[in-house]
Amino acid sequence: NDFLTIVPEDEQVLETYYTSEDAVNANTASLYSAYVWGDFDMNFMWMAGDELAGDLYYTYDQEGQFYYMTFNNGNSFLKQGWNGLFRVVSYCNNIINGMPSAAGANGISQDVIDRALGEARCIRGIAYYFLTEYWKDVPLITDNNISGDQVIRNTQASVYEFIRRDLVFASENLPASPFQSGRCSKYTALGMLAKLHLTMASHLDDAESAANFTAAKQYALQVINQSGQSLYNDLSTMFYPAGNNSSESLFSIQCTNDGYGYGNGRNVSLSRNALITLGSSWGAGKGPTLSLQDAFERGDLRRYYTYMRNGDSYDNLGGGGYDYYNFSEDESTETSNEMLAHVRKYVIGANSDCGGVAGASNQDAGNNIYLLRLADVYLCYVEACIGSGSSTDDATALDVFKQIRTRAGLGWSSETITYDQLIKERRVEFALESINFFDIKRMSYRDMNKALAYLNDMDRERQYVSNGQFTWQERNAAGAYHGGFTAVNPNDDVTGKGSIFYLNENVGQITVTASNLVLPIPAETLTKTPSITADPVDYEFN
Amino acid sequence: QQRMVSGTVFDTAKRSLPGATVVVKGTAKGTVTDVDGRFSIDGVSSGDVLVFSFIGMTTVEVPVANQTVINATLEEESIGLEEVVAVGYGTMKKSDLTGAVVNLSGEKLKESIVINPDQMMQGKVAGVQVQANSGAPGAANSIRIRGASSINNTNEPLYIIDGIPVSGAGTETAGFSWSGGSNGQNVVNPLASIAPSDIVSLDVLKDASATAIYGAAGANGVVIVTTKRGRAGKTQISYDGYVALQHRAEKMDMMNLQQFAVYQNQLYDEGLMGTIDEAYLDPSLLGKGTDWQDAVSEDAWMHTHNISMNGGTESTKFAASVGYTNQDGMLLNSSFERYTGRVNVDSEVNDYVKAGASLSYSRTDESIINNDGINGVVMQAALMSPQVPVYDFDGNYAGPESVNGSSIYNPVALTKDQDNTLLRERIMANTYAEIKPFKTLTFRSEFGIDRSNNLNKGFKPSYEYGQLKNTNIQIMQRQDESLYWIWKNYATYYETFGKHTINFMLGSETSKSSWEGIQIVKDQLTSNDIRVLSADGELVSNSGWKDAASNVSFFGRANYNYGDRYLLTATLRADASSKFGDNNRWGYFPSFAAAWRVSSEQFMENTKGWLSNLKLRLGYGQVGNANIGTYLYGSTMQAFPSAFGTAYRMSNNANPDLKWEASEQYNGGIDFGLFDSRVNLTVDAYYKTTKDLLLQPSVSPVLGGSEYVDIQTPFMNIGKVENRGLDISLNTVNISKSDFQWSSNVIFSLNRNEVKALDDQGTTIYGKLDWYAAFQTVSMIAVGQPIGVFYGYQTDGLFQDAEDIRTSALPEGINIHRTTGVWVGDVKFKDLSGPDGVPDGVINEYDQTVIGDPNPDFTFGFTNTFSYKSWELGIGLTGSVGADVLNYVRVKTEGLMSQWDNQAVDVLNRAQLGYLDGNNMDVENIDNSYLINPGAEMPRWSGNDINGNNRMSDRWIENGSYLRIQNISLSYSLPHRWLKPTGMSRCKLYLNAQNVYTFTNYSGLDPEIGSYNQQAGLSNVDMGRYPSPRIYTLGANITF
Amino acid sequence: EDNDTISGGGTPVVRYVRPCDVDASDSLLSSAYLGAKIAIIGESLGNVNKIYFNDQKAKLNPNMVTDNAIIVSIPSGIPNLKEDLIKLYTNNDSCYYTFETQVPAPTVNSMTCEYLEAGDVAHIEGLYFVNDEGTPLTVSFTGGVQGEIVESDLTSIDVIVPEGAERGPITVTSVYGAEESSLWLRDNRNLIANFNPDNYPDYYYYFGWHGASGVSDDSGINGHYLIINGEGKELNDDSWDDGFLAWEKWTYLPTDPDFFNANKLDEYSCKFEVKVLGDWSSKALQVIFTGADDVMMNWQNGNGLTYNSKYGSANGYVSDSEYPRALWQPWTETSDKTYTTDGWITVTIPMTEFKYGPNGESIAAPNGAGHYSGLTLFLNGGGVSGTPCNATMLIDNVRIVPN
Ligand SMILES: [Ca+2]
Ligand SMILES: [Ca+2]
């Protein structure tokens, strides 16, 4: 029998794994890695988060379906996002259900076990937050080994409550400062609780709405006053590896340059072209929408770090420098896109621009992806202060609001902040970080018509056409155009020449409706778990 | 008294046999027959015995007595009832067989020119389907013996190579996916280490009563490979070799530059593109542009040489060979090179003890390019714009003039610049000793090892192709080594009492396989020149593995023969494997078979004139399959790198009750021999049920999913698959004159496959392609269906006008809109069902259905051999009827997804929009839109395809039936009078054309597709495979 | 069988040049502009592997070269020598064809300062300032005099304003033609505010509540000019000093017309001359146009001070975040975030840029017609945090002129 018993020599086996605190920590380390979040963050996160929100223009094939808000449940990126988030849940459940007894049996202290449980439940709560905000009623899974026919959806209110319990547990079991930089702390949970309660409160017709606004304020205030964390003041490295786990980060997907699936894919998928990454690059057709560009105030320092436009120059892209022009000198190397701008945020260039972790070959750049940063909690506080009203003059709200604007090189002289001002501030602060869609979701909970008007006023069909009648010298003359040039269609111009770019009039109006705000369950899941189509039920908490 | 004896040696067709060996038994005295088959030998006495032998033919002994002229007739080993067949732990006369066993030997093995031995069975064995997965040098094939029965595990047969078992499952090359071949085929041929010309016979054990002696490994059938062994007599030296030219037979019909320009104008005129490159405005000014398919293909040479020696004395015989094969691929930078060496020695120490050994060494060196899939060179070359030149005028590789999101890299450059090589070395050795204390009892002990080393190297250089650049130089190296040993002991007892003959065999076997390896990836190298792993560069990843598996078995067989009329066989094997936990480690596999040789009965005496053989066979057996990974009954913790140091996660849940996958098979057969065996017909019918499939249930993503990165559900024993079928084999000698012979061989295989059960809920298992394929599901393994049926939507033409759209079911949540919805010219899908099981006016996942079956209705082979004097002409046909193919290539070449990609010429005839008001001002009004070409079959151009025109549907399913002229060969044996001065005793020259022509309606490159990476659930999915070349060969067999 | 790119090997011959467009295939070309894509038609062109337009090498795609046609873009680079030739080369042969590479006539886009006197150096920016050896570049001024060019390159010229140069446009002439500038030297068209005294019926140099820090004509360029922050007080993010930093010219009568045709915003720019003393690093110069409905003042007719009813106070528009204006804030664009001028310069703000709120808020569109009969200049707000400074700003000649 000995001859026939072969235990792997190259892998740990479960029976003998949980023998030290380090082993427990190495197990929870898996929950932060892009390795497990990858299906969510690689494509879906920005397609849904930024394209749906009307911030990122991209119209190609299935990826463009998010921009038009007209995907069907066969969309493969939709599937990736859903699968990725449920994968995170499954990893958390695996630890929550199996680790405590196994570790306890091996004499690991209860404190260590509780802390690990705190991490797992905190992260499960975060994953469910994304799930319910995108898909509304989703199945609450605590045991992944149930049979498929037991999978049913739970109501969104149940999901909120489930998340709340996870986060409260986490806040009570996590240390005030993470035991390892980048891990969840008590304030990760509290910050997330603030956002959760704000979201719950935004359902104004809910009886607990006012109480939830209050709870959101209180949780946010704890983070503001007690976390010891502060805004990170170097916009130039905030989305570079150098900014990983900075003083502003409350929760980030940890990205490493360890091959496909381990890192941040945005440097490849969003960068304008190979001249920036000196490797793969697929972002030529993507750019900030005209409506997002319009949202930036003059002088906003964030603009330059969020997107590139004609005449911008960066010394940490392209392997030591990249000058952005709509057209390259010989006119054919680089061409403009319909937005006359390209994505800058999270794009980190070639290896020499970012400490060798550009990941331009394997989409595995080493810059973390923020899922919750302090500025978000700050602005959640402001939003909670506004509550169901239309503005606030709360002193702390004004203070944190000003801090964020000051970092952006802007001031704030008004003594109040209106809801619309807050939303606009959030839009530019978090532009292309894939969270603005949730702001729109909260707006829709407050007032669906307002949210739809907000979306439809973006006129996402607007796009520029390049006019071929201009010479290179004219196209590249100083001040020929930038983000806000005059656009005259040649047909409307007496000289017949028109502007170098003009708005394409031949594009059909795109109208967003309320049903577009809830994503469809991917076809694969419907096929494999047909019971999921049953009406959602309340979750039974025990 | 010694004298001279002379005579002639003939074959059964009364042709004289030049080059046959004639030896005086027990002496070194001997000679070789001349070109007319004549011999003379001096100093022979009356008590001597002459031994006549010839490779591939039976040996005949003739006592000299008082004769001075002795003529001998040698029979080909492959023909005749007395043929000996390997049956596992022994041999058996074919006439004594009770199971379904097919032997291929002699000339039959030489009919087609193959690089790897598994291809030798193509079209030759009923019930065996051989499909080339790829035309790349050294690529793996899919071999199915009586259909696929396993779902997750391999369906490839077990090979026993000179006593050493080798799985038919191909090994992966890691460097393939590393170098950007995203999930293309990455499996290489496991039999590549054997030179086909070393093989003397292949015995295919098809039914379970035959394979049960191999127990747990026999479920997919067993192929026993025997290499040449020595013969007593004068040492013969033979040369076998050929040189061949490979030519790309098929190309996809893609647009040339002029057509591409027309296409660009169409898109511009339809208002789908804002601007157009002025160069396209007048297509008549343009040339043909680059034909990228031509650019990546070239006529390629291959040549192979094998020199063998054969000889020995009565007591010690040897056979040795060395071989060399060099094949350049028809696509740039793919190649295969092989060195082989082999020595077999058998020695009779005395009357009681016999011992022997075989030793083989092989070294293969392959250069593997990205062949299948979207990153494969086949697809890249199809999609690359004809506007881009291969080289610019300065001689540099060119690229697209501008950098677009979907720019394709110059496939010529990429293929030539990247390296991905696989070097494999393998040593197989087997020794045995046999003791025969009594005439009836033999003990045999065998010890074998199989040791291999693989070295896989990849290199991605920096480059600049036009505007496309890469500065990150990367290198990958993977090395692994494995050692397998097996120790067999068995005893055979053989006794005849009057009409009763019994034969018992009892034995045990112990084996262990262990393997380990490392893989290292580095990037940011400073130079393209040094392509070895050195201090240069930054470490990206480093992984290692080490594992082992062991087996212990006991087995026995009993044969009973009554008067050559009634034959019984029973076997039992018990296997234990380290792959299973204590709960279910042992598996037991019995079999029973009986045969009745009707033609040997007294009452058949008067039919002997025409009925030379009639045998009925009936068999039943159980076999297993355990080709799964190790330690799947337990849970492992997988390590991976993370920002917090090494992270661990559980890989899978445990299932301590995991056990053998079991297969049960009934076989009924009938053998007819007519007219002195000029007509031989064998018909076998079988019924095979495989249950307790070792399967990882496909879990809904909501429960964690089944991807590699998921915490996987454990392997379980679930489900049941049934295969029923008919194998028919007909060998006829149609004409047998002294100068002219015509013989033919027809095989016919029919198999019906059906999944009978899956898990408790009958959860369907879906096959899917890579993410970029954009199909969520492609194929399905579902109860009541054959394995791997295609699953998707049914199409119902195109939307013709507004009315058509308004009265049809539309995709869920999609409205009428030119950019963001359904429009005229989109594909209309059939509303088959809904949540309540009835059509609901909405197209969604409920409307998916089975849209094709990749399993053929039947396959066949038809081989004809014509000989006229020294000339021989062979024609081989193979075919398959009724299998459907998913032509994924067309999703890319007709998918209309990117204005920059080249498309099939047919795309020019896609649905094009016209406007009733005659101008392009009111293009957003559906009531103003109509189809200019209402007969169009291909939908309109729709950049983001919101209607899902490109979804998995019957649009991509085609009938893959074909009839192929597999080979035509012509050979000529040189007359002896020409040979005599050279010392040659035999010289045959031949010309062969392979893959001559294929009759098919399939639109892709080749309807013979096989299983994608040998997976059962993904059969007949055409991902742009490396096309099979047409091969013209000139070869020679020479014996000295 | 298909390869028509392989030439019979003869000497290449060009028959004619035509546009690529099939609809224009019978219109032959003897010249084309830089960057234009053309088709060269001829015989035995298949072996051509290099093409020059004069001395500029064209980028040639081998797939666009066939025996009978070559499609090529004229290089964007301006020829150093105007030879009017296309030169085609094979490995052994060559062929020249007369064809003019057209370069547009010079275009004057801006002059650093439009108010210059004879002897001053004018720095002109524009395009196609081609100084051909045979036909040198010239700059002529209204009044028929030519200036001496001190230095020039393709996009800029430094020229000495000659004696006799008069108010009006200038003309730059190159070998490729001449074009009169739309800008004027000492432009006095449509002056809205020249800050000269006694401009207003009962006011001095302003017409509203505020006159900034006063006016002066010391070292001015056109009489009196406006002084903002004349005492060098500290400017910082939070300071608000309309009494000292704002200047107004409010609408006088409800019937006062707009200063320009406000239905064609995109055809006009607002210009003024400015001189910044000291390092400017805080606040924006806001340029706000108003109409009678926004703010109007009239007491000469005995109607008393008129407030606009839309705002609580007459200058309510100033801090209304939805009232559009232009913000001139050049210090935010410099690397050290401070700005000063070397003498007087001309500032040009397209009228389409009048679409920001007081703190830089984006506003969908500038005001329409009816809001352009009053003007306010105010050094305030801007929304960008700066560092406190003590800069002084001098302004003159506010005008709205065609682009
Ligand atoms: Ca339906
Ligand atoms: Ca003045």
Can you describe what's shown?
The complex is a heterotrimer of chains A (542), B (1040) and C (403). Chain A is mainly α and 542 residues long. Chain A has 19 helices and 13 strands. Chain A has helices spanning 21-29, 34-52, 61-68, 76-105, 110-135, 156-173, 186-202, 209-226, 266-269, 274-277, 290-295, 301-306, 374-386, 395-407, 419-429, 436-446, 448-456, 472-475, 523-528; strands at residues 12-13, 56-57, 249-253, 287-288, 307-309, 313-314, 322-323, 341-343, 369-373, 391-392, 417-418, 464-466, 501-503. In chain A, strands 2-4 form a two-stranded antiparallel ribbon. A two-stranded antiparallel ribbon of chain A has the order 3-9. In chain A, strands 5-8 form a two-stranded antiparallel sheet. In chain A, helix 2 runs antiparallel to helix 4, helix 7 (186-202) runs antiparallel to helix 8 (209-226) and helix 13 runs antiparallel to helix 15. The longest helix of chain A is centred in the first third of the chain and has 30 residues, at 76-105. The model of chain A has no long low-confidence stretch (mean pLDDT 92). Chain B is mostly beta strands and 1040 residues long. Helix content of chain B is 5%, strand content 47%. Chain B is built from nine helices and 57 strands. In chain B, strand 34 and strand 35 form a beta hairpin. Chain C is mainly beta and 403 residues long. Chain C has helices at residues 242-245, 316-319, and strands at 13-19, 31-33, 37-43, 50-53, 56-57, 69-73, 85-89, 94-98, 100-102, 107-111, 121-127, 138-141, 145-153, 156-160, 168-174, 177-185, 191-193, 215-216, 225-228, 246-249, 268-277, 285-290, 326-328, 345-350, 374-379, 392-402. In chain C, the strands form six sheets. Chain C has a seven-stranded antiparallel β-sheet, with no helix packed on it. In chain C, strands 17, 18, 19, 21, 24 and 26 form a six-stranded antiparallel β-sheet that branches. In chain C, strands 5-4-7-8 form a four-stranded antiparallel β-sheet, with no helix packed on it. Chain C is elongated and about 90 Å long. The termini of chain C are far apart. The chains are: A mainly alpha (542), B mainly beta (1040), C mainly beta (403). Chains in contact: A-B, A-C, B-C. Chains A and B meet through strand 1, helix 1, helix 2, helix 3 and helix 4 of A and strand 27, strand 29, strand 30, strand 34 and strand 35 of B. The complex binds calcium ion (2 copies). One calcium ion binds at residues 194-196, 222-225, 396 of chain C.
